[in-house]
Amino acid sequence: MTEKCIDTTAMGLFFVALVSLPIAMICFVQYADSSYGLAAEQLGKFVMICAGFILLAAIGAYRAGSNFGATVFALVAAGVFYAGWAGGDIYTNVSLGVLYLVAFLWSYLAKNPPVLTTILITTALIFIFGGVAVAEGTDIWVLLKGIAAVANFILTLYLAFFLVKAECDGKCAE
Asked: Is the dihedral of CA 55, 60, 62, 67 positive or negative?
């Protein structure tokens, strides 16, 4: 029997990546054509479902004794769910972004891997740029949100694959 090696951290990262990519695509399309809005409505339902899986990763991190992982995944789940449900406003999005910047500091002080620490910056930027885009109504903030979302997608996938490989080295049957 093959041992399964994907932990809830990798799962959570895969779902964060799964949310980040369509956000980036919609931002780029919206930047190119401001009248584009239908896909964004559909995205809201999708990200709320993904938020549930990110919350499961938070619960898994809690059960594994990772206070940092549980807290950050729970914050991300809350932010992703809120973004899907309400779309966000400047005050909530910037507040979430600030909390992700605090988590960035926590990650840095805890000497977590630099990729994880950088993911917290890109996550913060997604929410901050999204909030400012709603308040300002200018396309440059949508473009910046899309760029941050692409960076988040790449970094979360990279870290998820790295964790799976690290966990499987020496433990998984080939």
From this structure: negative
